[in-house]
Amino acid sequence: MKIFEKLQHIFNKCAHNAPSVTHGEHAFRDSCLRLPASGLAYTLRLGGKQGTILQLYPWRSLLKTNADYFSWVLINPQRFFFEAGGFLRIDPESRVVIGRHEEDQTLALQLSTRVAKRHLILEHRKDHLLIRDLDTDTGSLLYVQPEPEQVERLGVWRLSCLQEIRRLFGGPLRPLDARTALERLRHAHAIQRAIWAPGSPDAAPAIIHLPVETQPILVGDLHEHLDNLLTVLTTGGGLRALEERRAVLVLLGDAVHPDGGSDLTEMSGSLLMMDLIFALMIRFPGRVVYIRGNHDGCDEEISKRGISQGRAWRHTMIKTRGEEYLQAMLNFYQDLPSIVVHPRVVACHAAPFTVPVNRKTLGNLRAHPELLRQLTWNRIHQPNRPGGYRKADVKRFLTALTGSDRPALVVGHTPLDDRHTFWLNIDGISNHHILYGGHARRMGWITLMDERLLAQEYPVEPLSQELDTC
Ligand SMILES: [Mn+2]
């Protein structure tokens, strides 16, 4: 609190007479600059010649109908365009201290040791951004980048990602006709089988192992929120990383079935969501993994607020796409994995086992429906949920799968409130995280940078509309 008050004091002192910067190069130390929100981009060099170069961009809505949305984004250009993330948002009315005081920020922006623990303050005010160097040894350097290709770089980049999604989908995001949808589902399923169960007539393995050099992009329960998936794929270089085989998109299940709204049986969004996921699986073979969630089925018992969404899903598939499509979807579900293991992070839909499981059982999980059920239905222990899992279960689960309890465990299924999109180190378990992809206005995801876990969040825009015209 003390540091914060001190920062506030020096910040307010300099804010009044800070020069407005619209061109040129500015070395500054222990002083303020004012950057008008007039559509310029900036390059920052922190920590001298051997320091870190960052870029500061105005971030506008891609939608013509949403011209008011404006934020600033700070990125490390050497990473942002190549991985799913690596950015820092400076939202309206917010203030951020840039520096190595925070591990996640150091990681996201790849700050070098030349950058001070508290190097800069950025404050997003109504029509400008105030930026202050905190009397660092090396000072800070700011260059104005007025060139239109620099100013528009992020917008152009995001639009190109959307266009790529439109291409791989084969047009605007609308549910496919019955025949195309069936072909696509079978094609995606065949690819999954060819990769995870080559030449075998048996079900595909319930556990999928990813090599350490692969960057997993973990996405929680989407529950029909198509724009949330588009947000992940267009913020940073996620699509490029999939294309270049450096990343794997890991969907934690429950991409289907609405989780709110007036009609919990209205399933057209689920059809479209699966159409897009299959298109991604076909475009990026082996780099899109779908973990089975409790909503990935048509059983009567799959329900929300007493309404059977499993039954509604079955009816919708039969009515719009026919019995054959339903059967193909059920076959697809049968082959879905329940656990993804990366040396740094393990993911499943809902919960680790609450019983010890030996190697032999792990190798033959499909023969143990009661264990698969725990993975997809259970939740963290609470006084009113005595059967829930606890810290010891997390540790044992990780050790059984990786030989160590140090990797992280990421699950979906149990959002803890309606304000956040991820919850880290839950229940006093330092490497246990919950992720949810169904928030109406914000999208969070978890990835690895330099083999360390990074959780990020971005406001969601109705990007699927933009796909109609881009
Ligand atoms: Mn669930």
Characterise this structure.
The protein has 470 residues and is of the alpha+beta class. The protein folds into 2 domains: 150 residues, no CATH class; 292 residues, Metallo-dependent phosphatases (Purple Acid Phosphatase, chain A, domain 2). The chain contains 15 helices and 23 strands. The strands form 5 sheets. It has a 6-stranded antiparallel β-sheet with strand order 1-10-3-4-5-6. A 6-stranded mixed β-sheet has the order 11-17-18-19-21-20, with helices on one face. A 5-stranded mixed β-sheet has the order 14-13-12-22-23. A hairpin with a 2-residue loop joins β8 and β9. α6 crosses α9, α6 runs parallel beside α11 and α10 packs across α11. The mean pLDDT is 93. The structure holds manganese (II) ion. The site of manganese (II) ion has 8 residues, from loops.
SSE layout and pairings?
Layout: H1 2-15, E1 25-28, E2 32-36, E3 41-46, E4 52-60, E5 70-75, H2 77-80, E6 87-90, E7 95-98, H3 103-109, E8 120-125, E9 128-133, E10 140-145, H4 148-151, H5 153-169, H6 178-196, E11 207-209, E12 215-219, H7 226-234, H8 238-243, E13 247-251, H9 268-283, E14 288-290, E15 303-304, E16 307-308, H10 309-321, H11 323-334, E17 339-342, E18 345-348, H12 359-362, H13 369-377, H14 391-402, E19 408-411, E20 422-423, E21 432-435, E22 442-449, E23 452-459, H15 463-466
Parallel strand pairs: 11-17, 12-13, 13-14, 18-19, 19-21
Antiparallel strand pairs: 1-10, 2-9, 3-4, 3-10, 4-5, 5-6, 7-8, 8-9, 12-22, 15-16, 17-18, 20-21, 22-23
Helix pairs in contact: 6-9, 6-11, 10-11
The structure holds manganese (II) ion.
